[in-house]
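Field reference: sequence -> structure
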Amino acid sequence: MNALIFAAGLGERMRPLTDHTPKPLLRIAGKPLIVWHLDKLAALGVRDVVINTSWLAAQFPDVLGDGSRWGLRIHYSFEGPTPLETGGGMWHALHLLGDAPFLAVNGDIWSNLDYASLPREPVGDAHLVMVDNPAHNPAGDFALGTTGQVHSEGAQRLTFAGIGVYRPRLLDGWQTVIGAVPGVEATPPRFKLAPLLRAAMARGAVTGQHHRGRWTDVGTPQRLAELDATLRK
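Structure field:
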């Protein structure tokens, strides 16, 4: 299985920390946040990892190199000065990811999820990891049914953890699903992944699992400091 790490965001909520350092390269308990992901991917047996970059992109190869220290091959998918959002970023990286299902993880989250619990072959087009709703997202994102299906709406809504396994075909016909929204006319196009996931949910093609362990969206300096203090203990 290949993997994609989303690392192209501007990190605006993390300023001034991200004025000079991309958010995934901020250090947690002595090492960059993105390295926690690389360690876990290497342990899983992943060999090729694509990292999409935009803001302060040159720092990633400077810090991470070619991935050989983890036994990985890192490929960088540079998106230009404006990030392409999750959907556009995934579409832009597909030629590096190949035709098989791949694992994708947001570079600005931390969890103790065992990646070995993820299916290498999702039943449908995507398999999402869901977590209990944090204080900053009380309404959740999607509903996880008792049979493992993920739905756009439902009584028991959970938060998408930013970790999933995807088939490249999820992006087939993305123009029809996304429609005429700002960014799709750009080269390369810029669009969100959520509408494609919701369309796949409507046809019963998204499954999920509920991770009840530790998880943090490292989206603010306060959450960064709290996670750093917790892991140092």
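Note: Helices lie at 33-44, 59-64, 85-97, 174-178, 194-202, 221-232.
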